[in-house]
Amino acid sequence: MDTEKVKRSYHFNVEEVIDNKVKDAFSFNFGGHHDLAALVEKAVAVGNITEKHAKELVVAVRLLHHVMKKYPENEAIKAFAPQFKEFKDALKAQANGK
Question: Which end of the chain is more exposed for a tag (fewer CB within 10 A), N or C?
């Protein structure tokens, strides 16, 4: 993954589109040291995933990981943590060509 420990900040704005009408649903800020754009490029370069789906995957994994770190004692998170770690490790191995 990203070896630089530069603090990055991202703003997510989620909009709902119904019948071509755009309505703000919610927005939030998210930060960390991962360069999301670089992770997307790496996922696409590995292959077998489109850029659109690589973006969705990277954002989903980073956001889920962040919440899991904040609430490790949550029963659902605790139950899912081993599978999530296995999935994340597999993604990292694939991205590193292992």
Answer: C
* Secondary structure of 3-53 as H, E, C letters: CCCCCEEEEEEEEEEECCEEEEEEEEEEEECCCHHHHHHHHHHHCCCCHHH
Residue with tokens 């292959």: 47
CB 6 within 8 A of CB 33: yes
| Number of residues that make up the chain | 98
Q: What is the pLDDT of residues 22-78, one digit of tens each?
A: 999 999 999 999 999 999 999 999 878 999 999 999 999 999 999 999 999 999 999
Check if the beta carbon of residue 1 is closer than 8 Å to that of residue 15. no
CB 15, CB 25: distance < 8 Å: yes
The number of CA neighbours under 13 Å toward the Cβ of 12 is 14
